[in-house]
Specification:
- Chain A: InterPro entries: DUF362.
- The complex is a heterodimer of chains A (293) and B (522).
- Chain A has 293 residues and is an alpha/beta fold.
- Chain A has helices spanning 2-17, 19-26, 40-50, 84-96, 112-118, 121-124, 158-161, 202-212, 251-260, 270-277, and strands spanning 31-36, 63-68, 101-104, 131-133, 141-145, 153-157, 165-169, 171-175, 179-181, 217-226, 239-248, 289-292.
- In chain B, the strands form four sheets. Chain B has a two-stranded antiparallel sheet with strand order 1-2. Chain B has a two-stranded antiparallel sheet with strand order 3-4. Chain B has a two-stranded antiparallel ribbon with strand order 5-8.
- In chain B, a hairpin with a 5-residue loop joins strand 6 and strand 7.
- The N and C termini of chain B lie far apart (73 Å).
- Chain B has 24 helices and eight strands.
- Classes of the chains: A alpha/beta (293), B mainly alpha (522).
- At the A-B interface, helix 5 of A face helix 9 and helix 23 of B.
- Bound molecules: iron/sulfur cluster (2 copies).
- One iron/sulfur cluster (SF4) binds at residues 414, 437, 439, 443-444, 466, 471-477, 491 of chain B.
Amino acid sequence: MERRQFIKILGMSSLFLHGWLRNLFAAQGPVVAVGQGTDHAGITRKTLAALGGMQRFVKPGQTVVVKPNIGWDRTPEYAATTNPLVVKAVVEECLKAGAKRVKVFDRTCNDPRRCYASSGIESALKGMKNVEVKHLEEERFQKVALNGKVLKEWELYGEALSADVYINLPVAKHHGLSRLTLGMKNVMGIMGGNRGSIHKNIDQALADINASFRPHLTLIDATRILTAHGPQGGNLADVKVLNQVIASTDIVAADAYATTLFGLKPADIAVTRTAYQRGLGEMNLDKMRIVRV
Amino acid sequence: MKKVTSARISQLLFLALFLVLFLMTEYRGSDRIVAAVNGFFRADPLTASSTMLAVKAYLPLLLPGLIMLVAALFLGRFFCGWICPLGTILDLVTGRIRKVGALRALAGRAKYWLLLPLLAASLLGVNLAGLLDPIALLLRALTFFFHPLFGDTVRGGWRSLYGLVWERRDLLDPGYRLIRDYLLPFRETLYPLAFLSALLFMLILFLERYETRAWCRRLCPLGTLLGLVSRLGPLRRTPAKLCADCRACREHCPTSFDQDLLQTEECILCMECALHCPSRRVRFRFAGPRAQAGPVMERRVFLGGLLGGVVLARGFRFREPAAQAKLLRPPGVRDEEEFLKKCVRCGECMKVCLRSALYPALFQAGAEGLYTPLVVPRLGYCEYNCTLCGQVCPTGAIPDLATQEKQRQVIGKAVFDKNHCLPFAKRIDCIVCEEHCPIPGKAIRSERVELTGFDGAKRTVQQPYVVDELCNGCGICENVCPLEGKAAIEVFRVKDRTPLKPSSPAAPPPQDPYTDPYAGNS
Ligand code: SF4
Ligand code: SF4
């Protein structure tokens, strides 16, 4: 609740503070910024700027959690984990905006030490001041009442819950069950317990969690995407280089746009459809403002 | 503690080295692990001789052990007095244990009754020496019991601290990280046989009640082997007997002067006698072949020992057929027989396994397989890109393979149990196993099936199947299956463990176009 209000207030204040932003928000529907180019750090920065810059989300002295996908023991070129250059650019922007501390973590599927090392994220952020690349600690999970359709409660990661700003940083890729893994599925990285058990009803379950836990910003890494044998791939033939990043405060809109990169329609993805039907965000492309940079 | 002698310094250095190597037997961000971590085993003459006897071939990995054996010929049991970490631990604690006098049962030829059957069994292809090898005993006690216990305690404390002060604990985080990264086991694993391993170690300490270094003198098969060899060597202490006018050696010597004559095969070369001799008479020097110093062993013991070996080798062969189905060996092990000959039960692979896939066998592999490593997928799985167990195995029982080769090694094959598997048994979606299967082309795939659910509603469900030609039995599917208790997919042992074909997935079955929007245009 607090988080949502916080964003609203921020959005409102920027309306008045920056005249040029008014135009941006004047149009109906969420803004989706899409950056394209081979300089992955550069396009990440430009895309963030198109959304109003990181200072729109991060205020000096705040604690930020950046949650990339570090789930698998794969090197960056396999597109199973978030591009370390993108992660680094986002973290740097957070620091520039005055963040007191940036925490980066994920609940991995393979051995966490291997995932952190292979993904290149650990080494990319190594030595940065006030940045912590952390392994999860069991005791920090807290039961959260979700009162959702299928999930009444679930254990979520304390450091994600207590962060002032939460930035969702998934990579866009194929998934055998939900067809695609995008922003909304990335929330699984802060879920405790037996995550696999939500697969039997994955679209409703993800909507339940995303309804109560809302990232301030979702930035989808589509610099290269995994088109088959997801979510961990392992075959370069399945990887397509797109050199794009997509950012929005509307997680559903970001997901919906990213879906098109796979040649699919947003409504093809049950997770997106369900979230849209439950009012978590916009999935109709013509109702979004798509800003290309 | 005694005064500082060269032997003592050497002992402490080697003990420290042993502990450091123990802690280094852990994944720390690099795919290769320092080769030296198994150094103590590779330089262990008992490991070397029993393993080479068993496989009847020369194993280059164990050359240091052979060199040690030759060194013992010239220098006696210096290993026991200067290097052996278990001996050092005994020396460190023995001072605090009050002695009640030697145990008669152990005084005689008991040690030969241990060593000979072990070596004879090796000759017959059953390598059991590791069960009683001092280095292995110590490493297993540390790996299975003390280190996990230590980890548990520290982590438990750290956790409860969180309960007390919550996020404020973060202030101490840097300090804790150091401890966590260098001293604690990364994962919290409970091992079967932990208790037995600790018990054996405690028993060895307990024997110190009877006399100093009781285990070393009376039982240790490694020490006995070294003692036997040293009898033949040229190194001699003079005088060989207690001097009539002094007899102080009896007080100073920790091992070999409970009789008037020096017991060569029990002398650990600690040099205490030479250092403390009031009249500086004691010398250790090389001379011609040794004068006769009492009988080595009677023929009775020798023949009995051989016979014991036959009994061990043949009598321990029984295996429970049902337990065989899940008898999964570490990656790269293709022939069970050969594996049993080479595995010295040192525990290194179980210590290093980063996903807790490996556990010591109880009786799954028969009595002869006690303490050999097994993959238990429901507890941990073999990490696709990891090759650590092969790297630390001192005898090559688990081969050290390049990552890509290791990935193709077959541990077993996964099999679905449709009575449990959710898409079949309950007609609802799941495929967590497919998601986790690390094989690039996926050894688990699924087909979309139109079904009427048990609630009467029509729906599409994804039903999984295994592609045998791709499955390497890594076990992650069984590990992550979200069902409680028994998994709906299990890895079973297969006889034919021919490695998978390199890459290019063997004739992929028709792709579901629904799941692969780019099929055909790459
Ligand atoms: S069993 Fe697998 S995961 Fe464990 S050490 Fe061996 S290779 Fe690594
Ligand atoms: S054991 Fe399971 S996860 Fe491992 S390769 Fe076989 S099917 Fe895939």
